[in-house]
Amino acid sequence: MVKDTDEERVVLGMSNIDVILRRREDADEILSFYGCPEAKPLQQIFIGCGMSHAVGLLEAKIKVSDDCCLVVQVQGNRYCHGFECEGILKSTDRLSPDQLRFLNFEGSRLPGKEAKADSRLCRYNANFIYKSQKILPTHTIGDILNTIIADCQI
Hints:
This protein is α+β, with helices and mostly antiparallel strands. Helix content is about 20%, strand content about 30%.
């Protein structure tokens, strides 16, 4: 389902990076099914959910270039900022200064003095790097959603 106003460029139910970055033969058909058939859906927000390692997962991906997506993710009690890019991403060398600030939670984090981002850079597969912070028991669903919305402002 797609909201087609300027304020709501959201594709619900699909966050397959191979489709978003057009690495699959059927990417156009899949994106058309989800209501966003344009050739380069830059700055469109793709939202997906599921399970990973028996833990619930919610994510939003924003295509920021032809080969890279910004990722905001909630998995279990972790809130993550990351980048998923085409090709091998071993370090932050490919990221711009603005992307590095996002990755390091500069200017954005869950509320509260205790909410601190981890300093460690994590990796999943060869093309996804991220940092996370713990979601505390004192954080409300509203805190988490408001932070996600603020982080997805483009």
